[in-house]
Amino acid sequence: MLQRILTNGVIAGLIVGIPMILLTLTLGESAPSGALGMAIGYTTMLVALSIIFLAIKRQRDVVNGGVIKFLPAFLMGLGISAVAGVLYVLAWEVSLAISGMDFGAMYAEHLVEAAKARGASEAEIAAELAKAEDFAKMYANPLFRMPITFTEILPVGILVSLISALLLRNGRFMPARGAAA
Questions:
Q1: Using one digit for the tens of pLDDT, what is the confidence trace for 149-170?
Q2: What is the pLDDT of residues 70-115, one digit of tens each?
Q3: Domain span at residue 38?
Q4: Which is nearest to 105 in space by CA: 133, 126, 79?
Q5: Least C-beta-crowded within 10 Å: which of 28, 95, 122, 148?
Q6: Residue 169 — φ and ψ, nearest 5°?
Q7: Is the same domain home to 97 and 121?
Q8: Distance separating alpha carbons of residues 40 and 49, to the nearest angstrom
Q9: DSSP, residue by residue, 29-97
């Protein structure tokens, strides 16, 4: 099962990582950001992590003869998510290196602009600026940045793993072809 976890995790990681790198290479700092960037990113994660469902179904139908318990299915999904998450983090690091983008500073600027847009007082804006500058300094450190990046994809992986394990533990749900007869 470990080989299947690694193989499917790498496939999912490439599905989520390659578009990120390609967008960075082609669009650079003009790449979609804000709500559109998040929508594209999370949609790509969901598509990539759908590999979890396929891997668990294959494990159930082909390897286990049509049966899988919740916990092994869920753990398989979490393993695939972890491998995909590591590749996602590496793709983000490559994207930052290629583009030279200072995401921490860009995000900090966004926080200050949002405070101004909501009509914050000068004191609130100054406080937001201080927090934003602290964040930008911390984000420049890869040991701080990489775990944050990993936590972007992890909840999606947990959710897909949970749903897949819950559905596929029932052997009557999408049985293997020929098994339903």
A1: 999 999 999 999 999 999 999 9
A2: 999 999 999 999 999 999 999 999 999 988 888 888 878 888 888 8
A3: 2-101+150-168
A4: 133
A5: 122
A6: -65, -20
A7: no
A8: 14
A9: GGS--HHHHHHHHHHHHHHHHHHHHHHHHHIIIIISSS---HHHHHHHHHHHHHHHHHHHHHHHHHHHH
Other beta carbons less than 10 A from residue 19's beta carbon: 16
Question: How many domains does the structure of the chain reveal?
Answer: 2
pLDDT band, very low/low/confident/very high, at 30 (cuts 50, 70, 90): confident
Same domain, yes or no, for 31 and 96? Answer: yes
Determine contact, residues 18/45, Cβ cutoff 8 Å. Answer: no
CA 58 – CA 80 distance, rounded (Å): 14
Does position 122 have pLDDT exceeding 90, yes or no? no
DSSP 121: -
Tokens 């964040």 correspond to 135
The residues near 87 (Cβ < 8 Å, ≥ 6 apart) are 9, 10, 12, 13, 14, 16, 17
Q: Are residues 66 and 155 in the same domain?
A: yes
